[in-house]
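Repro:
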Amino acid sequence: MVNDKQVSPSATFDQLDAPTRILHDRAVATGDSTRFGGVWRWCSGAEFVILLQFCIGSVKVFRRFDPQKLQRSVVSRSFFYLSGAVGIAATLLQLYNAVLLNAFWPFFTAIVVQLIAAMFQFAQMILRPPEEQ
């Protein structure tokens, strides 16, 4: 039951009192509809930093590989470049979300991209024939 000081969850904008209307208008005007002032900005910013460190570390390790062994490897170049491009796009989307957007879906997109890449790598590891030594 709702008393005089409580607002019903199904209340329309006209039924809100003046201070609640002002807070609502400010939240809509700034694009910040969360109580925490941009929790998805902080999450995406942290994820951007973590993904950037992972990419830098991966490139350093990849440069240490022997070029002859890379040419003989069974890994397809198309998958390598496609996953790299999608990973870069997901990382840049985190930066865009942290700076401007403040939404959940870009943050979740980066998680889904990482899970899909891991599933493809696992499937490739299982389906690839063993290397002869």
